[in-house]
Amino acid sequence: MNQSKTRVVLTGLGVCSPLGIGITPYWNNFLSGVNVLKRIKSFSTAEFECKHAFQMNERDLMNNTGHITSHYVSRPNRLLLVSVKSALTDARIKDYIGREVAVFTALPYGNWDFGADFYRKLMVSGPDGVDPMAFPPTLINYSSSYISTSYQFKGPNITFASGIHAGIEAVNFAARLIRQGYITQAVVSGVNVLVGDVWAMWALRNKLQVSLKRGSVGIFDAQRDGFLLGENASTLVLEDAGVAKRRKARVYAEVLGGGLSFGKSQQDYCRSMGTALYNSRLFYKDIDVCVLNSNGLKSVDSAEISALQALLKERISQIEFVAPKENNGECEGASGVLQALIGAKCISSKIVPSFSSRQYKHPRLADGLAVRYGARRKTVQNVLINSFDVDGGNAALVLGKF
Amino acid sequence: MRRVVITGMGVVSPVGTGKEKFWNALINGKDGVQKCKKLDTTPYRTHMAGEVDDFEVEKYIDIKRLKYPTLTTQYALAAVKMALDDAGLEIREDNKIGIILGASMADTKATGDGVMHWFKTSNRYSTTPSKIYENLHANMHALRVAEYFGFKLCATTLPAACAVGNTAIAYAFDLIRSGSGEAVFAGGHDLVNAFVYGGFNKIKSMAPDCCRPFDKNRKGLIVGEGAGVMLLEDMGFALKRKARIYGEVLGYGLTADGYSAAIPHPHGEGLIQATKLALNMAGVHPRDVGYINAHGTATIQNDRIEARAIHAVYGKKVWVSSIKSMMGHCMGAASALEACASALVVERGIIPANINYTHPDPECDIKILANTAIKKNVDIVVSNSLAFGGNNAVIVLAKFRKKRV
User: Fold this and answer.
1) N or C: more exposed end of chain A, with fewer CB within 10 A?
2) DSSP calls for B214-277
3) Residue A163 and residue A266: Cα distance in Å, rounded?
4) Which of B125, B174, B200, B386 to mutate to test the interface with A (most CBs of A within 10 A)?
5) Which residues contact B40 (CB under 8 A, 6 or more apart)?
6) Nearest-CB residue to A152 (from B143, B157, B258)
7) Each residue's pLDDT tens digit, A290-337
8) A177, A156 in Cβ contact below 8 A?
9) Given its phi and psi angles, is residue A200 left (phi above 0), alpha (psi -120 to 50 degrees) or beta?
10) Is B341 helix (H, G, I), strand (E, B) or coil?
11) Which residues in chain A (165-204) have CB-CB distances under 8 A to chain B?
C-alpha cells in the first residue's frame, strides 16, 4: 500500500493523434466520435485481409515537425516530440530546459525502420554502405533519449518495452519515484507508429481484425476477431503535488496507485486491478469510471470483462465504462498513457465520453457492463484504467480527483 | 521502506558460464576475448569479440518446452534458472515474483533474419517463417522467462542500451522496497551480432586486439555477449526462508546527461549526479566505498570522462577496475554481469583486477587495480554503467548486516 505522504498529480496532457494534436482538439474529436480509420497506403497490405489503421494525417504532422530537418529524427521521435511539447505547454511549466525532469517512454519497437534500414545496408553493402550517425538511432532507447537531449532534461531516462501495458507501467514507476522524493517532475509518454514489418508480424500472429467488410467491426461485435492498429503519441506531466501547488499549476487528477501482474487469465487481470485499488486505498465501490483495455481481441477482452464482473460485483452496473480503442485503435506503447489521459480528462472536465464511438444493438462481449452512449456530464471521483498486453503483461492505474 | 538483499545469481559470460567459473576467471585475470566465431568479420576493421563458448542449454532448461527459442532467450532462461537454483527459491502458484530484463535491442537474430527475409522476398510478408515473427517483440525474452517459470508479478523489459542491468536492478529494487513484490529477478542479456559489431566498427569504437580500460594505449571496446541475472528479495522474506545472502542493495542513481544521444557529457556531469544520488539513497559517504566496478569500456572518450567523474566524487582513494578488460563489452548483459561480480566482491573479499593495463593514462587519474586481483574486505561497492543516449545508472551494494547503521 502507498504509505508516502507525497502526493502525485497530473498537470499536463499532450497528444499527437489522428484525432488531433494537443489535448483540446483531441478531446473534442474523441467526444464527438470522429472516425479516422483509413486504408493503409504506406506499405502493401495485399497479402492480408486487414487493410485499415488509425493513421496520422501527414500534413498535420509536417505542420508541427516541418522545422526538423535532420535525417536522424525518426517518425516515433517526431510524434513523441509533438506530444511532449504539447504536454509541457499545457502544464505551463516555466524554464524547464536543463532541469532534473525524468523522461519515461513506452515504446516497444524503438525506431524499427531505422534499425531495419541500417541492418539491410550493412548486410547488402557492407560497412561502407552505412552511415555511422545512423547507428545510435537503431537502439530502442533512442527516442526517449532524444526527448531528454532536446530539452536537456537531467532526470532518469527509461524506455519501457514490455508491450501494450508498458505505458501504465511507466506511469506507475514515475509516480513511485515522485512519492519517494527521488524526482519531482516526470514526462511520461507512449508512442506508436505504423510500420509495415511490425504490422505484418501482428497479421501473421492472427491478431489483426480481418472480418471487416465496411471498414471496421466494432470491438464488442460478436464477430470481432482482432484489433486495428493506431498511431499515437500521448504524454502526461506528473508532479509532486507540493511542487505543483507552489507554482499554482492546474491539476487534472491525482495518481492514486497502480498494480502489476503477469498472466492471461481473469484472475491475473483481477490481481493487477485489485493491487491498484489496494495501493490507492480504495474499494471497488469507489470507482466511478473504468477506461477499458478492450481492443477487439476475443481472449483478452473476455478475460477483462469477466475480471471486472468478478472484482466489481453488483457495482458493475453503476460504473461508467469507456472503450477508447474503438476510435483510436490499438496504439500499443501509446495505449496506456492515452487511456490515462482520457481518465484524467473525465475527472477534470466532468464529462464522461460515450461507451464507444459506435452504438451496439447487442454488445455481446459487454454483457453486464453499463453501456451508455453519448458523452454526458458527471462528477467523477475515481477512474480505473486497465492495460493488458496480448502476451500476458498487465498493469492497472487509479486516478482520483485532487 | 523494506530492505532488499541479493540471494541468487546466474551468469553466462565470455569468461565462463556459471557463477563459480565466472568468479574464478575474474580473480585469475582470464582474458575471454578471442577471434570472433559467431560472425564473419571479414568486412570489418576488427575481428575480436568476447564470446560465450561453454554454454550448454540442456544443463539448465528443457528446451523442448520452448517454441522457437533463440540463443538470446536461452541465455536469459539459463541465467534465471541458475539464479533460482542458487537461491533455492520455491515458486508458489500465488507468487509475487517478477522478471525485469533488458537488452540493447530486440532479439537481434530474429530481427536480422526478418529484415533480410523481407529484403530478399521484396516484402512478401506472408512467407515469413514463424520462428522469425514469433520472436520480433522486444519483450519476448522476459515473457518467455515469466511463462517458463510461472512468475506472476511482472515481465518487464527495459531496453536501456548498455545500462540495462543496473536500470533493471534499480526498478526491481523499487518494486520490492515499496512492497509490490517479494522477489524479482533483474538483469540483462545480449548476443554478439552484426547490428552492434557493424555499428561500433563503423563509428571506429572497437579495438583490434584486446580491451585495455583506462590504459593510455587503449584503442576501443571489444563487443561481448552473455547474460547476467541477480535475484533480489525482500530481506524479511529471505531471512524467513533462511536464504543465503550475498549482499544488500542500498541504493541507485539514474540520470540522463541531456547532452547528446551518442556521446557522454564531456565533464561527466550526469554520472557525477547519478553517483551522488546513489550514495545519498544508500546513506553512504564516498570515503566508505571500498571498490568501484567501472563502466570502463576502453574507448578514449568514455574512460576519460568516467575517470573524471570518479575523481570528482572519490578523489584517488578507492580501488577501481573494469571487468570489461576480461569479457569485452557485453552490451545488454554488461552491467548485470558487473553487478554479479560486485556482489561477489562484497561476499568474498577479493577485488578483480583491470587486466591489460600497462601504461597509466594521466587523463584517467584514478586508483586502478592493475592486472592482479587483491584480497580486501570490502563493505561497500559501487557499480557504474553508462549508455548511448546519455543514460547513467549507478548502484550501491553492501555486505549484508542484519542491523545496518
Assistant:
1) N
2) TBTT---B-BB-EEEEEEEEEHHHHHHTT----EEEEEEEEEE--S-SSS--TT-HHHHHHHHH
3) 19
4) B125
5) none
6) B258
7) 999 999 998 899 899 999 999 988 888 889 999 999 999 999 999 999
8) yes
9) alpha
10) helix
11) 166, 169, 173, 176-177, 180, 182, 196-198, 200-201, 203-204
Average pLDDT score over residue span B317-328: 98
Residue ranges for chain A with pLDDT beneath 50: none
Of A123, A156, A262, the CB nearest to B256: A156
Here the cell at position A345 is 480528462
SS (H, E, C) chain A: CCCCCCCEEEEEEEEEECCEECHHHHHHHHHHCCCCEEECCCCCCCCCCCCEEECCCHHHHHHHHCCCCCCCCCHHHHHHHHHHHHHHHHHCCCCCCCCCCEEEEECCCCCHHHHHHHHHHHHHHCHHHCCHHHCHHHCCCHHHHHHHHHHCCCCCEEEECCCCCHHHHHHHHHHHHHHCCCCCEEEEEEEECCCHHHHHHHHHCCCECCCCCCCCCCCCCCCCCCECEECEEEEEEEEEHHHHHHCCCCCCEEEEEEEEEECCCHHHHHHHHHHHHHHCCCCHHHCCEEECCCCCCHHHHHHHHHHHHHHHHHHHHCCEEECCHHHHCECHHHHHHHHHHHHHHHHHHCEECCCCCCCCCCCHHHCCCCCCCCCEECCCCEEEEEEECCCCEEEEEEEECC
Is B330 a known active-site residue?
A: no
